[in-house]
## 1
Amino acid sequence: MVGGAILRQLGVRGGHTLITATSAELDLTNQAAVAAFMQDKRPDVVILAAAKVGGIVANNTYPAQFIYENMMIEANVIHQAHLVGVQSLLQLGSSCIYPRDVAQPMAEDALLTGILEPTNEPYAVAKIAGIKLCESYNRQYGRDYRSVMPTNLYGPGDNFHPENSHVLPALMRRFHEAAQTGAPEVVIWGSGKPRREFLHVDDMAAASLFVMDLDTRGYEAETDPMLSHINVGSGVDVSIAELAQMVAEVTGFQGRLAFDTSKPDGTMRKLMDVSRLKRMGWEAQITLHDGIAETYGWYLEQLEKGAVRAK
């Protein structure tokens, strides 16, 4: 999803030869395959948007895959990029790197100051490792490897699996199906009270390219986390209940919203402190309601084509 959005914006920008590979063409967990790819293609810049991702159900069900696959992807791509002389690299992380009980909104300097949320700890540890990989190659080899930490992303290209996807696409699919069948209610995991921040994938792509283009001369890693990692978000959060109501409105669902409190809520609030990126000159442009409406339109188009991603 994010990689596709970044490619679209790079295509509009022009002036680049874009090198890509699908997961079927290149297994990023395979060290030898990644080494051969890097040696063959010799890229000047690498953007690492690939990851194994999912919502609370997927994280709880497949913790070993989440930590293993993400650590292998990061280690292989970052190390092999270094070996072929790539000086500029951007890797995408996640807001779950921050401690469970961190002060809100979550600032960059909160990293490694407390215990992680247990429901996604394996994924978070892998993403923290990615940050530290970039930091270490910068420190030892003078590379310019940067990390951006997005909040919850959504938009065209998302995964709409009813259980393994993130909360917004999962809700969109369920509310759409309920609206089509005239179901009297939609059941939502948890109490509906946790608050989450969402960012449209096109905004994330724009922010990623903005960070890659930043001239970081004058920043000191010891006093400013810019050279370590930087938060990317909308700076606005909503409750899951409010999100569900918004999705219900967009999809035309007229029934009841029921909350299954026997299911886990996860972290009660996750809001990014995006003040550093805003001071540097970038902020989100797409409102949540507009983004949901645009994404739902795209989802309907994919349904007609039989091309909805749901795995």
## 2
Amino acid sequence: MNKSKWNQEPHLYEELKKYSCKNFYPFHMPGHKRQLSVGPAVHFPNPYALDITEIEGFDNLHHAEGIIRDSMEWAASVYGADKTYYLVNGSSSGILSAVSSIAGKSGAILMSRNCHKAVYHGVFLNQMKSRYVYPQFMGEYGVQCGLSPCKIEKMLKRFQDISAVFVVSPTYDGIVSDIGAIGKICHTHGIPLIVDEAHGAHFRYSDVFPVSALDLGADVVIQSVHKTLPCFTQSAILHIRSGYVDRERIERFLQIYQSSSPSYILMAGIEQGIRWMEGDGRERMKEFSRELVTIRQELKGMRHLRLLGKNVVGTRDIYDLDISKIIVSVRGTNISGVHLCEKLRLKYGLELEMCTEDYVTAITTVMDTKEGLRRLRDGLMEIDAGLVGNEDDDAGQGSGDCEKRWELELEQVMTVYEAWEGEKEQAVLEECEGKISGEFVYLYPPGIPVVVPGERITKKVLEEILQYRRLGLPVQGLKDRKNRIMEVVRNG
């Protein structure tokens, strides 16, 4: 590209600067919410001044014996872990390391079907067998629910080759499963429980939030501190409790899946974020928690839109709910989640984390301001006042909605590795019913696969993908820009 053409193109840096000057309020990650006047950012200098490499006195993340080792040991003492590791390649690197460490090549793992794509990538890289436990589905809100400890126990009794259980709790929507019960079941069978708690790094800082999986018997817990704490994007931590996992194997894979040139800015950001939360952040968390509870109480007054609330706890294997996730359902109204998200953005300047056909997700954190939370409340209340109910929608009977994909256990015909690496061909999406998927298809965010390589594509799942496409949702995994072509196993 010649210089004259490059000068006419928008630059990422310039666009970021322009966007930062606009009045959009972030109800999305990262958890620092771009706040410069409070929190760790107040004490964090120009990042260029801190950007170093492994020079004398600054240790090495992959062979920590000094200042980084001391910092991670301090973090472990804060969280009550036997060992804590800083992750500079996000939670994905921790997930990949945990999965890779649990079994040799071609082992088996029992995982919740709503796991992040990184778990499936770990299964693929290790050519493992994946067995799934499906969450229930809450039709009246359009969200996935909790995981049944009884189902997990039945699967462990049925399949003797399972080396570990991997679950996500809380989910992207804040749904928490009974980790204590699941952990006891795993340990009875002599295997570890690994928990993707990417969205729960804030749990330890207020009683209004659920108890962390680390305190409930999980053996490995991965947390994305950048999601809900004031830390830089891409920073995360992995905690270990001794007894059921091989720490040295996890360390080996962390060296494989993380950069050989780890960012000192990210590592310092993790340390500084946790330090602030343990100090001034606790008082701010009290204020945030009070404001959050008040705002949620007021949102219960919406007539058409519905806030996912604590009343669902105790149903459908939901053990607890993270109230920092504002999940608002549009089921039973005359608009979709996509339209609601667009209204909030264009009219009220509110940038949400995610939208689906059925609901929108706003992520709130300790760094949110009262003004920002109230803008969200006012925007939702005003939009709700202008809506009408949809008499053709069966939202009130949603608990019986078993036709949604999370109630459909797709047939596994091949392993992820066999299908993804095998001979494939391209097919028009509408003609894929009955074929075996050769690719992941998922919405990003949140990155949970709708279809996994090796699964037979059903009519219901195909209809759902087509509906996502019609709504303009971010479908990834299809093979052309218009999302018309899918890769399937040849002769499958």
## 3
Amino acid sequence: MRTFETIVSGIRAMMLGSAERSQKKEEIAMKVIHCVKYGSHRDLVVAEVDPPGPPQPGEMSVRIKTAGIQFSDLVRIAGDYQEKSELPFVIGGDAGGVVTAVGDGVEGFRVGDAVLTPGGCVERVNVAARRVTPLPEGTDLEQAASFRNNYATGLWGLQLGRLCPGETLLVHGAAGGVGLAAVDLGKLMGARVIAAASSEEKLTVVKTLGADHTINYTDGFRYQVKELTGGRGADVIYDPVGGDVFDESMRCVAPYGRILIVGFTSGRAATAKTNHLLVKDAQVIGYTMGGLSRHDPEKNRANAEILLDWLSHGRISPYVSHRLPMDEIVEAYQLIVDRKVIGKVMITT
């Protein structure tokens, strides 16, 4: 017959065993958001997979806390991106996390460091140390993970557009991720900024980043731009929208103006009429961040350092309008589809 002490001991052992099994399961399984077939964001899968093993030489392990998603993900998911990703792939972009292990040969990083890393919507990742950016002490992880892609796109575009202090910058899609970044950067670079968006709610947020003028372009914008510039037009036009917006931009670009082609969220890639460019003495400049990283990695790194310095000193102000858990990834992308996101939507892991 078992004694009371034996029974208690047995119960304690069962509880400890259950806790150990639970911990072991937690260590074994991790969540990841996979695109398993080209098509719709509604086909995304939240899966449980084995975590990566110990980091290899030159790598580090990072526990991701928050990751950004963006419109370009939807293009990748549809299979329409310039370079198709091999299925299945992890969706999402930059992520903010904490270093949990460091491989041989890695210098300058310690366990517990806050970092910015590629990785996307996954709980843990092993990544080459050269691809990881240490964050200055006190830098907010969410802000760090939300800003780089959008602000890097904005800065490189405005550099290509040769934006000068005192010039007029017209930003379309000004409440979107890359648009809001361009407003913020344009003001920092000394431009007079006209921000155009599709609702008063969005324009209210845009004003907080210092836009000098705002336009609701639901009913067009060229006459308002002309009026605000004394008939001259905008010196630099930042256009992530394309389609009809680009066509109308050609009507209000200043002499020797530059139109920056950032994308075409409208769904239609516009056609630039060369006779209009001749009459306007204007330029149309297309660019991608992938092109910069391939063709001029030093410039890409230099810009990243500039932006991180500005972020750590509070000179730029990334804006996050929505935060959702991994299990609500379909709802998160639907916010982008429905154009309800202002600035950035972040996924918490």
